[in-house]
Structures are given as structure tokens and as C-alpha cells.
Design a protein that fits this description.
With 451 residues, the chain is of the alpha+beta class. Helix content is 50%, strand content 18%. The strands form three sheets. Strands 6, 7, 8, 9 and 10 form a five-stranded antiparallel sheet that branches. The chain has a four-stranded antiparallel sheet with strand order 1-2-4-3, with helices on both faces. A two-stranded parallel ribbon has the order 5-11. Strand 1 and strand 2 form a beta hairpin.
Amino acid sequence: MKISKTSIDDLNVVVRIAIEKQDYEATVNETLKEYRKKANLPGFRKGMVPSGLIKKMYGKSAVAEEVNKLLSSNLNKYITEENLNILGEPLPSATEQGMLDFENDSEFEFVFDLGLSPEININFDKISKLPYYEINVDAQLIDNQIDGYANRYGENNPAEAVGEKETTNGDLVQLDAAGNALEGGIVSAGVQMSVQLIKDKSIQKQFKGSKVGDVLKFDLKKALNNDHEVAHLLKIKDDKVAAVSGDFSFTIQTINTFVPAELNEELFKKIFGEETEVKTVDALREKVKSELKANLVYSSEYRFSFDSKDAFTKAVSMALPETFLKRWLVETNENVTAAQIEEEFDHFRKDLEWTLIKSKIVKDNEIRIEEADITLMAREMARMQFQQYGMSNVPDEYLDNYAQSILQNKEQRQKMAEKKVEDKVLELVKEKVGVKVKKVSQKEFDELFEK
């Protein structure tokens, strides 16, 4: 076997691999012997099929399989031994790869195009201090969070009449032109309708003041102005809504008004656990403020990552094998056209540049992650998921068990490892570049992503 490399330029090389008969012949012969032992063809005893017939039947596929194994293992070995820092994957040469005939040829040449990663030099001193946005936890944010808790543990109470916020439950019946139940029409029992979801003002007026037992007649599609919601209420598929026409009657069976939970010790225990030290509304507000401040750090860190990526990709001059990369993206992604790649390549390029910059920082600064880092991240992920469901005081045992279940997912584990590496890179950026802390409101922070 012969392997050679030709450099086209600093970022593109061509690798040729010549596989000769002596490289694969012995293995192929052993494979064909195994086929012969197992072959069971009409007219021959098992294991007694002529070798020539076996070779005719299976020789081509046996050669192709063995040659491809040799090709794959030796190409990867060569890339490693030659320290070729490739981007993407090797691609068969679009101009030099010849046709392969595994049935008649005994020697095969494979030609691959490889795109190489550029040399990167990072000078932290050339990058100005980066902004770090701290989101102020104002009264409105605290109020919104407390309202969320109160609503989560609130309840529906029966009401006498429909007002601004009441929810009704009843039966929908499709009507004919005369206002009677349409024979064979749609009947949907036990559906819930809220005044707040009705878009048409005149139909809203019909609902307001109505009571249990009242029968309202209206155009349902006009009332909601949303085909998906109409389909949901009528319990039909979305594509059937277009055929629905005319009015419906709605017979009110129940009326409920939602009452948020009172802000008292009973609610505080439901939110934070029986042993909570939160006893008053003032203490609740302080607790919520503390939690919000901790949670908003994730938003601040995300924005810092965004700004770091922007600053470093602008500051670090980098050439890429663009022609190769565009071809690789087209050939390795189904249903993607060259035109689409061309249109979206700038975004891909910036992401790749940031990935290469991070890798360089990791290598130059010998950044490592430990098993304890990933375990701690899984535990924090578990805590946040419990928190999303209003469970703020989950015992350590449950957190640890859930964290271990997260770690069992190899893909999830890999993502956490990559995230932890980036976290350490960003901590180093803060240390070497420095930050300018800017205090902003939630609204001002959200507007940063609109620019």
C-alpha cells in the first residue's frame, strides 16, 4: 500500500492511497473459504461448492469490502500520524478520482480532497474589554414571578355569570341556515371557552352576563379567527376547518372564575417546602428577588458568550478552505442545495471560526474538565428542571438521582462537556480581556438581540 500527499495550498491537500492485490488477497481468500464452508447450493453438498463458483458469486463483494476496510483504517491512521488538522471529513476528489472496477481490477487508487484548519494566533491584548450585562431585578419582575406562583396554585370556583375573565364549559352544535341543529353536523360536547380568547367584540358581548343554561348562537370561526383553535374545540383535524361554515350554538353547562392562591404561609410551603423560612410577603419578595438574580446570570452569561464570539471572530484573522467546506456541507447534508449553503455560509463560517478559536484557547491554556465538573452541571440542570415545575426545595437525593439519569444519555453528556469547556474559556476571557459591567432592565436586555 502506498500513501502520498500533495499540498495544493496551506489549507487544501490531496491524499492518494494505492491498494495493491497483495494488501488484501490473503484476507479475501480466507473470507471466500468461510463462504464455501457455509454455502448450501442446489446440486452440491454443503461445503463442497467449487471454489471457482464461490469466487464468481462472492469475489467482487469480498474484495470491495476488504479494500474499503483497508482504505478507512489507513486513511484515518495517516491523518493522525501526519498531524493533519482537518476540517469536516475527507471527500473523494471531484476531479481525480477514477472509476473503480472490483470485478476486473486488482489494484485500486483512491484520491481524497482534505480541507485543513488554519494556523491561529490569539492575542488577548488586542481585544478591548467586553460588555457584561447585569439585569436589574426590579419590582415588575418580582411581581410577575409572584403572580406566576399564585396562578400555579390557584383554583377555579363556580361563578353565577360570565364576566371579563370567566371560563365556560359547554356543548357546541353546528346549525343550519334556519338556526336549528344541522342534521349530520358537528357536535362537540364538553368544550371550554374563555371570553378572553374570543376575538370578535360583538360575540364577546353575547357571552358577558350569560348564565348556566343559556344558549348562545354565533359564527365560531369569526369568534376565534384561528383555524387551529377552531379545530381543537370541534375535535377535528386542522385541514377539515376550511369546510366548516355557518353558526354554532353553545349551551353553557358551567361557569368558572379563576382565583389565584392567597399569599400566605400555606402557599409559601407549597412553593419552597415545609421547612421554608419564608413567612411573610416581604420575605417572599426577597426570596424571589434572590432566585431571579441567580437565574438571570444564565442570561447574562449567554449574552457574554455572544459578544465574545463577535469580538474574537473580528479580531482573529483567519483563512478557511471555503470551496472545500461548501462542497462538504452539500455532500454531507441531505436536502440541502449549493444555493442554500452559499446563502447561509457566512453564519456557518462565523460559528466555525469561534469553534476553532475556542479550541486554540483550550490548547494554549491547557484547559481541562473533570468528571466532577460534568456531574455538578448535570445536578444544576436537574435543579433547574424541577424549578420549572415550581419545585424549589427538592431533596438532594432526588437531585442526585435525576442528575445520574441525565448523565446516562451519551449525547446529553457530550453537550454538557462541551458547554463546560466553553464556560471555562469564557472565564479565561473575562480574566485576560476584562469586562465592563452594564446594569440594564429586562426590557433593555431583550432589545440587545433586536439590534
